[in-house]
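Exam revision sheet. Question 4 asks you to relate a sequence to its structure. Input first:
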Amino acid sequence: MPLSRSYKETIQDRAQHDPEFRVALFDEAINALLEGETNVGKALLRDLVHTTVGFEGLASELAKSSKSLHRMLAPSGNPSMENLFQIINAVKKHAGISVQVASSCIQQNTQQIVA
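Answer key, structure tokens:
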């Protein structure tokens, strides 16, 4: 008999009961996608779907099959931008998350070499 739960169960349980943790997972998912770490971003979105709307609820809301949504968020999945943003918006809505975007300039080394 195992003495502990799986990592996935622990994350999903905490995300269901801790709004700040849900926001942190959402932030990490979006940042991962923006940084090109698509497998990480999709995995976190998949966890958020499980803990918020569920795949059946998401399928109904987006008029897509649950199986198709599972494939989109699988490691080999390749969702279109439209589908990805529909999923993100549904998760955001069901998780009660408000998004604000802030950008800043990256300081680059601008030293000039004088000959």
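Marking note for examiners. Residues 7-95 form one domain.
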